[in-house]
Amino acid sequence: MSQERPKILIADDELELLEFLSLRLSREPWDIVTAQYGEQALEALKPGDVDVAVLDLRMPGLDALNILKSVQQLGLDTDIIILTGYATVESAVLAMRRGARDFLRKPFKFEELMTIIRRLLDGRFPASNTLAERLETHVNDHAFDPSLCIDHLCDHFKISPRYVSKLFKDHLGTTFKRCLAEHRVNRAKQLIKTGDDPLYAIADKCGFRNYRQLTATFKKIEGVLPRTYREVCERA
């Protein structure tokens, strides 16, 4: 059963891969849970609130095939993606027959996994809401780029400028320019609080064309100049 935010389970006994996937997926507007063993993965699935599960085919204890069997027996509505090594492709095909929605052979590109997860989530959640959240996440992740503009979003997501503007307005209650400005200013605030870089260097790190643009945008969003904000932080 889906909730307001998609919930993603990642289960793999390779700790390094598990941590990498968890870190990268946590940048999306999703709730991420992890498991290293088959039993842990099944326990995470039992409440029935996981939308997509990414399971390594071979894990200590329960393997993905047995988890799929339990998912069917429990009547859980979770879309399952299988990760498999080259030598176990036949087992991955068997997993598909048992209800898995897709599989990836290791090593795989992260964007390949993202494409599958997004496709599955688009089928479970209103597509426009999901896309609006992805747009905002993309703006946040690339706000440091001074050339970021609506055209970049259009090229990346294959949608029109008019539709981008509509998604920001209808689902995020803002505009692209305002959203971008707020993310840049928030990053500037963090750098001002935690370091002593000169403001012109902070402007460069946050995607502003120059110190003048940082000052004008900061004043518009926060109501004070960045140097005043720094003075307040230093006195706190």
Account of the protein in words:
The chain has 236 residues and is α/β, with parallel strands linked by helices. It folds into 2 domains: 116 residues, Rossmann fold (3-Layer(aba) Sandwich), CATH 3.40.50.2300; 110 residues, Homeodomain-like (Arc Repressor Mutant, subunit A, Orthogonal Bundle), CATH 1.10.10. It is built from 12 helices and 5 strands. A 5-stranded parallel beta sheet has the order 2-1-3-4-5, sandwiched between helices. The model has no long low-confidence stretch (mean pLDDT 90).
CATH superfamily of the largest domain: Response regulator
Main beta sheet: strand number and arrangement? 5 strands, parallel
What Rg do the Cα atoms give?
22 Å
Broad CATH class of the largest domain: Alpha Beta
The general outline is elongated
CATH architecture of the largest domain: 3-Layer(aba) Sandwich
Uncertain residue ranges: none
CATH fold field value of the largest domain:
Rossmann fold
From the helix content, strand content and strand pairing, which structural class follows?
A: alpha/beta
Number of spatially distinct domains: 2
The total strand number stands at 5
On the 0 to 100 scale, the average pLDDT is 90
